[in-house]
Write a structure and sequence with these properties.
3-stranded antiparallel β-sheet, 12 helices, AspAT/PAT-like, pyridoxal phosphate, transferase, aminotransferase
């Protein structure tokens, strides 16, 4: 280890997903079912709003909390949903930025944070940067949010419960009953509840429900990256109790400073864009890949996001992914998201042609491994 490096940099590895992305760039005509972003482009009206902002000279720093019109529109929407007496909102540099600010503002060394395994890869890394302790609750085999398992994991050092529905990497959506039980548990125990809702618009079988409906102290993180294909624009938002939001803003002032101003004007326009056609298309893609793999793999049918998380037909999910990559199919090993090396993640945010090619490779592999 280089003598100048901080110890915190050794607590976690570089993202395994990024390694697959790097591999994709080297393959000729890969079947790419690895990337976690929509395959449609940013809607034209959003692009126009952002380029208009650039051409009008709106290129300086914005206020740390975000441009006034966007923040006001977000606040009005959030207030209409929850009507909480004390709920503020600010614009973050993507939802990843929002997550980092939440951890830096709330987690002290030794504080425990409960979340489900499998999990989004950033959760343990961010916690370890802050000196927090990951308490991973095994959600297999159905990957559901089980309130009893969450309750059993609580200790006197528990500071936060982190929920993600629809979930990455499984696509599983928590039921209203599950969310309500966990929200009320957090309130009863005076534990912070952080809800990562970046896939909230990708619901295929039912309406989205936030745990903030049942716990007015819930901190919610959401954004425009996945819903509007704006992953590179870095516009997220966070809402929750005003004192917590103020602390997060203070940290943002000395770190991210603000989300890019032209992108915020694009996000303001994005709030008026109808996404129903895209959601219908992803529901169809979900059904296409589930039907294509149902006779070959074990999996829980996703109710949201754009991921499928099948069990590998051999003992090692990582070894299976290597076999798939040898055939030009890029998928993600489950051990990146889990303490278990038993599954793999497919992103069905891809063209139908790519999905059909990927399904064929996976069907052939399953037949050969029987």
């Amino acid at each position: 280890m280089h003598p100048w490096l901080a110890q915190r940099t050794t607590a976690f590895e570089s993202s395994g997903i990024r390694k697959v992305f790097d591999l994709a760039a080297k393959l000729k005509d890969p079947i790419n079912l690895s990337i976690g972003q929509p395959d449609f482009d940013v809607p034209d009206e959003i692009k126009t709003a952002a380029t208009d902002a650039i051409n009008e000279g709106k290129n300086a720093y914005s206020p740390t909390q975000g441009i006034g019109p966007l923040r006001e529109k977000l606040k009005a929407t959030i207030d209409s949903q929850f009507a909480h007496a004390d709920r503020d909102v600010f614009v973050s540099s993507g939802t990843s930025g929002g997550l980092m600010l939440a951890m830096l503002s709330m987690i002290n060394p030794g504080d425990e944070v409960i979340y489900l395994d499998p999990y989004f890869v950033m959760y343990p890394a961010l916690l370890e940067m802050c000196g927090g302790v990951s308490v991973r609750v095994d959600s297999s085999p159905d990957f559901r949010l089980n309130p009893d398992k969450i309750a059993a994991a609580i200790t006197p050092r528990t500071k936060m419960i982190l929920v993600n529905s629809p979930a990455n990497p499984t696509g599983i959506t928590a039921s209203v009953e599950e969310l309500e039980a966990v929200a009320k548990l957090a309130a009863e125990k005076n534990i912070a509840l952080l809800s990562d809702e970046i896939y909230s618009r990708f619901m295929f079988d039912e309406d989205f429900v936030s745990p903030a409906k049942f716990n007015d102290q819930t901190i919610v993180i959401d954004g425009f990256s996945k819903s509007h294909a704006m992953t590179g624009w870095r516009v997220g938002y966070v809402h929750g109790p005003s004192e917590v939001i103020a602390a997060m803003l203070k940290v943002q002032q000395y770190s991210f400073v603000c989300s890019p101003q032209p992108a915020q004007w694009g996000a303001l326009r994005a709030m008026e864009v109808n996404l129903s056609g895209h959601i219908d298309d992803y529901r169809r893609k979900r059904d296409l890949i589930c039907e294509g793999l149902a006779d070959y793999y074990e999996f829980a049918k996703p109710g949201g996001a754009f991921y499928l998380y099948p069990k590998a037909p051999i003992d090692s999910g990582s070894k299976f992914v290597e076999m798939a990559i040898e055939r030009g199919l890029l998928i993600i090993p489950g051990k990146i998201f889990s303490q278990h090396d038993s599954h793999f993640r497919i992103s069905f945010a891809a063209s139908d042609e790519t999905l059909h090619r990927g399904i064929k490779v996976l069907q052939d592999l399953a037949r050969e491994l029987k």
